[in-house]
Structure formats: C-alpha cells, structure tokens
Amino acid sequence: MPVLSEYKKKRKFDKTPEPGPKKKHSRTRRMFVIQKHRASQLHYDFRLEAGGVLKSWAVPKGPSLDPTVKRLAMQVEDHPVDYAKFEGVIPEGEYGGGTVMVWDYGTYKPENTDDVEQAIKKGELKFSLNGKKLKGSWVLIRTRDRQWLLMKHRDYYTMKDDVTEIAPVSILTRRTLAEIAEDEGGNVKKAATGDPRRIPERTGVKRRKQGQKPKVWTT
Ligand code: MN
C-alpha cells in the first residue's frame, strides 16, 4: 500500500482538523510522541518516527514504567510526521472522533539495530526513549497480527507508580483532556469521563491554548 494511503482514506480533511501529510521527516528523524486520545475509549497512541512516517500503536492502558507490566499495543495505520503536534478535537462522527492531547514527546534511539522499519517488520524493536515523561529502555514485541506488547526494561527509570496518573496533562499546554475539549469546542463531559483520573490541582502553571507556541519543541 502506498505510504499513508490508509491514513488519508480514513479521514475527511474538510471535516477534521487533523493534518494531512506534508513534512518528510523531523529534524532528528527519530521523534516519538504519545497522544492521549478520548475516542469511543480512552487510549494512548504511541508513535515512533521511521521511514518518513510515524509508526503507530494504540495502547488502551497507556505505558507503564513497571517492568513487570506488559501493556497491549494494537498497531494502527501509519500517521504523517506532522501529526506529532496535533492536539485538539476531532468532530464526533468522524474517524477517531473525540479529544486528543500531546501527552509526551521527544526522541528515541533504536537498540541493537539501525533499521527500525525492518525490526518492526520482524516483530521486535528495542529502543530507548528521551521524552519529558518517559525515559529509558523499552521493547515492543509482536504477539500476533497487529497485536503487540509494550514493556519497560529494568533500568534507572523503572517505577511502580502509574505515570499516567502522576503526569496526566498535556506536555505542550499543561491542559487536561476536559480543558482541551473546552478550549477547542469539543465535548467536555465526554473528555472528562474518559479521563476519570484526578484532575490535578492548579499549581499556578498557566495552560496555553492551541496555536500559542510551546516553549520547547526539540524534534
Ligand atoms: Mn487514537
């Protein structure tokens, strides 16, 4: 299948604010991003840049820093590199309708290979993440078809606590899902029920709206 044809086929670009493919690659060509997405179910879209696209997995429970925990990761269609900065609302009734948050981003390094695409084809990729929330060594292993497992390797960054609870808000704008929905004209109630974890107390850190430049964007 031609590059990103599945991505394009699933979306109507006059209806959704999601980006069409433009950029060929990021500066580092090794970007990773995790988007917290309240569609029909809450999940975390885990994306690694390889071969000019974001290879993508939907992780229902999100990543865990506990090396004894295996998280189901369903491989989904490749996304354009431009998608990494998308935070906002996909209209109800459209594919993936709901609220999207950039939960973490940064760069990654494949371990034991230079050919990430080949490793993914073979069904096993070890890599280390250098994100704002997630760091250290990880592995993705295919169990069957589109079904994979995401696991943390034991290292300095291992932790028993649930990182999705400790760090629930956007890494770009510090907003919760409900706040993003509120700012971008989405369904606030749905976004809030999709994110039942405690909304963090206001710490005085100002949230920014979409379109205001984040202070840091390293990829
Ligand atoms: Mn999704």
Brief summary:
The chain has helices at 5-9, 116-122, 163-166, 177-183, 188-194, and strands at residues 31-38, 42-50, 53-59, 70-79, 88-90, 98-111, 124-131, 135-144, 147-152. With 219 residues, it is an alpha+beta fold. The chain has an 8-stranded antiparallel β-barrel.
What does this structure look like?
With 219 residues, the chain is α+β, with helices and mostly antiparallel strands. The protein has one domain (5-192). Helices cover 14% and strands 34% of the residues. The protein has an 8-stranded antiparallel beta barrel with strand order 1-2-3-4-9-8-7-6. A hairpin with a 7-residue loop joins strand 5 (88-90) and strand 6 (98-111). Helix 4 packs antiparallel against helix 5 (188-194). The protein starts with a helix and ends in a 25-residue tail after the last helix. The model has no long low-confidence stretch (mean pLDDT 90). Bound molecules: manganese (II) ion. Residues 37, 39, 43, 45, 58, 96 line the site of manganese (II) ion.
User: Assembly type of the shown chains?
Assistant: single chain
> Mind telling me the C-alpha Rg?
16 Å
Indicate the mean pLDDT.
90
Q: Which sequence of strands runs across the widest sheet?
A: 1-2-3-4-9-8-7-6
Output the structural class: alpha+beta
Q: Quote the distance from N terminus to C terminus.
A: 28 Å
Count of the separate structural domains: 1
Low-confidence stretches: none
